[in-house]
Specification:
It is built from 35 helices and five strands. The chain is mostly helical and 716 residues long. The chain folds into two domains: 386 residues, no CATH class; 157 residues, Rossmann fold (3-Layer(aba) Sandwich), CATH 3.40.50. The N terminus is likely disordered.
Length: 716
């Protein structure tokens, strides 16, 4: 095949470059040897400078987000309870396990407390290491205990500085990926600058520090950089083995630190599958990447005490199906265009059917229902029927799980990122379509070059991978706003690569018949430099203003509530309330919870729906019975939920509960015909009237402008 012939020529060329022939070495004037040595020295110098710039930019980013965090909260000056309250919702839950490990009498007792936890969910003992991705908190707490830093650094600072340090790793990985694709570290610098100037849309680490994605995305970026390097041609066997090891380690760490890892890697597997179908990636390397994904996820499964949600993931089913289908269809890439198209369609259908069958079989065997809420949400989101399911609607009504807002693109356009991205995406997509068609039809790239040299279109495997990667993750971001951080960071890489790419500019200049190697070289360096100068001129003053703006954490009502709980309730007290608030209650007070924000468990979802009846139209007897069934001693009611105005009618929490209970919603507007009026008023409103039917079960023991705490009577 022509591709094999080119590869052989390339190897010969590479060998000639790496090991100059004797004939060149013995030339009398020594000019060839001198030029070769000079070129090597220049490459070494360029790599050294690029590496220094990468590390410097990464460290500056880390300091930048740390400074923003300090300036926004005055973190160094506020009380410990205020620091802990600043870790909102699920962030507080995750950090509480780090705190628990730090405060344990020994590492062994700390681990035992996590494996046999009876404070996160009342009247149940659960394995936190099996249920949640908190190995990073465990590792960090052990590291803090064994290092001689306790006198110099508080545990909370060790934690947040680690995450801010990971931002340096993240930016360096983006920088390196862009550098590998374009061949110049100028591209990496531009990617890093875009990442920083588009911070609102590329990261939220400074205000959601313990969030799982802030741990995972740096490792995902490292994995993408390693895959990009792996897909380069002519790697030596040692280089290939080392790169595969790097991919495996990064994949494993990414999977270990985020519960949604399987869905992100499924999209990555689809990228590999699409490119392999069109013969745009080396088959052997694709197979290795499938195996690495499976093995990394299975290793995490073992560490998480054989978490059934991992075993039942679509990723394992899909990758296994692809590997099985490859053994069945051995001659997939042979034949004419129509023959290959037919084989390809059959191959896709075979993989799809095998994936569904394997996944259904695994879930049937394991009786797995942990992730059913995700599929209900996706089914409703993409219009496959309306749903009254409380869990699905809870996601559908959250802005983070809605479509990507249009103002995102205006912000990205201010830095020129979006314009450049669309331009590069268009050029690369055209090239990919041409190459894919040529591969399917069996045309020879070499013959094509000989006939029409100036219109040769090529697409290197590493560029092809990053193209499909950005397209698929772009679709994910457009459909679900919370996932935009996976796309926008890679958008910086892809746009900067295209702007500094010889191949992109060569193709464009040849199409308009003005190509010359010198002109290409001038454009690929001048335009990125001009872009960098524009970004610096426009955004440097704003960054300086941002760094000089000082704010302070202020949430007196929540602070008052937490202090009251610590001072006036027993350590064994069980609290019920909203998921978000209870995460803070566990972190700040150590009290036992009825429910919490980590939603990947069916029994917890059912429990949460029951607890939330405090905001529904239910009788006091029903609510009391439900709360006592979970061992509740105190219930916290929030006015911000009871009288919610943040969401529109139909998406308020009380509306979701009314619909799930078959009751008509409050306020003006339409209701579905089968919904009926409730026999009881709304519990969270009526309880404040101190009617006898309520006071017999509930006694108010604390209140402020935001919260009302009621103690449950213990009837015999």
């Amino acid at each position: 095949m022509a591709t094999v012939r080119q590869r052989r020529v390339g190897k010969g060329t590479e060998a000639a470059e790496d090991q100059p022939s004797e004939e060149n070495n013995v030339k009398p004037d020594g000019k060839t040897l001198s030029a070769h040595t000079g070129g090597k020295l220049w490459n070494v110098l360029s790599v050294a400078v690029g590496g220094i710039v990468a590390v410097s930019v990464g460290l500056l980013t880390s300091v930048y987000v740390a400074t923003l965090h300090e300036n926004d909260l005055w973190f160094s000056n506020i009380k410990e309870v205020e620091r802990e309250i600043s870790f909102r919702t699920e962030c507080g839950l995750y950090y509480s396990y780090y705190k628990q490990m730090i405060q344990a009498a020994s590492i062994q007792q700390g681990l035992h407390g996590l494996v046999y936890d009876n404070k996160t969910e009342s009247v149940r003992t659960i394995n936190i290491l099996e249920r949640m991705n908190v190995y990073q908190e465990v590792f960090l707490s052990i590291l803090y205990r064994i290092l001689p830093i306790q006198q110099y650094l508080e545990p909370v600072y060790f934690y947040i500085y680690t995450l801010f340090g990971l931002q340096a790793v993240y930016v360096i990985a983006l920088y390196v990926t862009s550098w590998l694709l374009s061949g110049t570290w100028l591209s990496g610098l531009l990617a890093a600058c875009w990442y920083i100037t588009n911070r609102i849309d590329t990261t939220r680490v400074e205000f959601t520090i313990p969030l799982r994605e802030n741990w995972a995305l740096p490792f995902f970026a490292v994995q993408i950089a390693a895959i990009t390097y792996l897909l380069r041609a002519h790697l030596q066997p040692v280089q290939e083995r080392l790169t595969l090891t790097a991919v495996f380690v990064a994949t494993f760490l990414f999977s270990l630190t985020w519960q949604f890892n399987q869905f992100m890697m499924l999209i990555q597997a689809l990228t590999l599958f699409i490119l392999d179908c069109f013969d745009m990636l080396p088959t052997a390397k694709v197979v290795w990447l499938y195996i690495i994904q499976i093995s990394g996820l299975l290793l995490v499964c073992v560490l998480q005490f054989f978490n059934s949600m991992i075993l039942g993931s679509l990723l394992i089913s899909f990758n296994a199906s692809v590997l099985i289908a490859r053994t069945i269809q051995k001659n997939l890439k042979k034949g004419s265009l129509l023959t290959r198209l037919g084989k390809l369609i059959f191959h896709v259908l075979l993989v799809l059917c095998l994936t569904l069958l394997i996944n259904k079989f695994i879930k049937k065997i394991l009786n797995l229902e942990s992730d059913e809420h995700i599929f209900k949400f996706l089914k409703a989101k993409f219009g496959f029927g309306a749903t009254r399911d409380f869990d699905a609607n809870l996601y559908l009504c959250e802005e983070a799980f809605g479509l990507l807002p249009l103002n995102t693109f205006s912000r990205l356009s201010d830095t020129l990122l979006f314009y450049v991205y669309v331009f590069v995406l268009f050029v690369m997509t055209v090239a990919a379509v041409i190459v894919a068609f040529r591969n399917l039809s069996g045309s020879s790239p070499v013959q094509f070059t000989e006939k029409m040299e100036e219109y040769t279109v090529t697409l290197k495997p590493d560029a092809a991978y990053n193209l499909i990667h950005t397209v698929l993750f772009g679709c994910l971001a457009l459909s679900t706003m919370r996932m935009k951080y996976l796309w926008t960071s890679h958008m910086c890489v892809f746009a900067s690569f295209g702007l500094c790419s010889t191949e992109v500019w060569k193709l464009i200049l040849k199409c308009i018949h003005v190509y010359s190697s010198q002109r290409t070289r001038v454009i690929k360096y001048s335009i990125p430099i001009i872009t960098l100068l524009y970004i610096s001129y426009k955004f440097w003053p704003g960054i300086m203003d941002e760094l000089s703006e000082l704010r302070e954490f202020y949430d007196p009502d929540t602070v008052e509530l937490m202090n009251w709980i610590k001072s006036n309730t027993p350590n064994t007290a069980v609290f019920a309330g909203s998921m978000q608030l209870l995460a803070g209650v566990k972190l700040c007070t150590g009290r036992t919870l009825t429910n919490h924000p980590h939603y990947e468990d069916k029994s917890l979802r059912e429990r949460t729906k029951q607890i939330y009846q405090i905001y529904a139209k239910r009788s006091p007897e029903d609510v009391y019975r439900i709360l006592r069934s979970f061992g509740t001693d105190y219930v916290i009611l929030e006015d911000s939920i009871c009288y919610e105005r943040r969401h529109s009618r139909g998406c308020r929490l009380r509306d979701l509960l009314d619909i799930a209970n078959g009751h008509i919603m409050d306020g003006l507007g339409e209701n579905e015909p089968d919904l009926k009026p409730s026999l009881y008023p709304r519990f969270c409103e009526e309880i404040k009237k101190n009617l006898p039917s309520y006071t017999i079960h509930f006694t108010r023991v604390f209140q402020n402008k935001t919260f009302h705490v009621y103690k449950l009577a213990k009837h015999k």
